[in-house]
Each structure stands twice: as structure tokens, then as C-alpha cells.
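__Record contents__

***
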Amino acid sequence: MPRKKKQRDPEYSLHVFHHFDERVRKVLQVFLVQTTKEFTSFSYEILLDVAVENKAIQLKILGLQTTSLLMPSVGPARGRRDFTDLAGSYVLNIMKLDGEMNEFQLNVTPSNLVIKGAPAAPFITTSNRPVAL
């Protein structure tokens, strides 16, 4: 009898939402990736590489690094990318360093960012609920 692949829990969460940035006085489309695990020793940053081409957004998770502030703190690792000019429908591909990829559909309107679709066993969950920055 073939062995069933063990269902694993997602390693990351992606939050996409609009945020008004007081500093630049613009509405940003924020992409915030967090680990699902909390770290107890240091704050870690998720290194992200982002490419937007035509109607496709490629978000690559490159790994973790400690932040320059080596103060003990508790929480997930975070990586953030901001955009100012997204509008319409996109294919959103999120890739890990090992090449594993999750694909979603992203619809950007002036009032909301909506993510649809999910692979059968995703390594990342998605939400359009704003989180504290």
C-alpha cells in the first residue's frame, strides 16, 4: 500500500492590504510575509525578492537573517514589500528557495486586495486583513 504524504502545516502567512503611509502621503499595497513559528531569541527578517512583470507578481522567499537590532524579542520573522501602482488582476507566484511554488490569483481594487485560489498543500496561507506594521 503506498504511503500517504503527511499533511504539513503552512510555514508562512501572507497578508496583503492597503495602508496609508503618512510619511510619503500615499496609499500603499503592502505584502507582508511572516513565519507561522514565533522566535523567542531575536527578531528575524525574511529576505524577499520581488518581480512584477505584465500581470504577474513573483515573490521569492530567500531565507531569514537577524535584524541589525540584536535585542531579544519574541515574534514571527517578517518580510515586507510595498507597492504604489498595482491595479487589476494578477497571477501571484510565491516561491521558496528550494523551488516549491504556490500560485494564487490577486485582484487589486482601490478599496481592497483579494486573493483567490490555493494549492492542495500550501506552504503559505493568505489573508487580506491588515496587520500592525
